[in-house]
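A quick word before the example. In earlier lectures we treated sequence and structure as two separate objects. From today on, think of them as two lines of the same record. Here is SUF system FeS cluster assembly SufBD core domain-containing protein written that way.
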Amino acid sequence: MSLLAEKTQRPGLAPHTDSVATFVPDQSRAERTRSYAVADFPMPTGREEDWRFTPVDRIRPLLKDEATGLCLDWSETLPAGVRLGTMSVADWQSSGAPAPADRAAAVAAAHSGGVAVLDIPNDAELTEPVRLTLTGDDGQLVHGHVLIRAGRFSKATVVVAHAGHAAYSELVTISAGDGAHLTVVSLQEWDDRSIHLGQHDVVVGRDAQVKHIAVTLGGAIVRLNTNATYAGPGGSFEAYGVYFADAGQHLEHRLFVDHAVPHCTSNVEYKGALQGDSARTVWVGDVLIRAAAEGTDTYELNRNLLLTDGARADSIPNLEIETGEIAGAGHASATGRFDDQQLFYLMARGIPEAEARRLVVRGFFAAVVSRIGVPEVIGHLMSAIDAELEASVAVAS
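And the structure line, produced from the sequence above:
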């Protein structure tokens, strides 16, 4: 199955909408509920627009309004000057942080038991990444909440890695102060039994630059919602993603970029590969350009590569534009099978088929992975992708 859609908006043209209203009549993306109260989000049935691709029955334990009192195992590497502390849920709410956007996030916030706060000082320029490693054990059901605050004019990279066996629901709040340059890498390398639901809220300060990179290779079900807003003009948000789904895995990534401030930019690029019967991925990208957001420049792109029969990728890019006074807006999506011509080209030059397949898929992912900017993380991920490709060769043979 192939899907290709692209739209472009230029200054002076009438407002254009290619929004979620296509699927839910008369509903703007801006009208969806955001609340700190779990009761404001009914238990989903799977028929709602936000949940229609998700195997709701399999994640229902994480949607119950109940605390477990459990935590994942934590380890951290903190460069000099970086502090890791805690904050109460009440203090986090009163800070004006973005509220949860679905029931899973509301439950995670309400029952996390407190917020882990990572503070990067003003003007700090970190030469080494901050690392947080969260590890599950014995399939424990855990709610978590992390707040990452990058001070004014700071420059930092934060790597948050998830591994082990757990049913984990999290809320991650990311705040970049004015002029900050922040990269946040979220690694999902769970074992094949794990479930992970996450909402990542990014607030981009005036003239700040934020990169959010999601890499999802493990887990039975992973569903990540990444939402970006702007606290002042001149902000830049880049969202990159890599995912590789095997048989039986459901990997779902949803993004919402809310342009409500003038002269900001956003760029979204996600790439995924799928192999094996019942491998399933979902990508939904929503961009809203409000009437006040003149001068916006935005683009979103999703590509999916089907390596075997029986895999399915759903890809839905949406644009909702309330003003024609923008620099540009567009989106594109494509899903297709392995390019036999590229394979033939390499094999005709004496490269064995298995190696040729590996080179083509590595090239497909490499442009996104290289944007992480942390050499040891890049090397680790490309090795993990190679391991996935070895499995694909075994499936194909």
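Notice the following. The mean pLDDT is 89. We will return to this example when we discuss secondary structure assignment.
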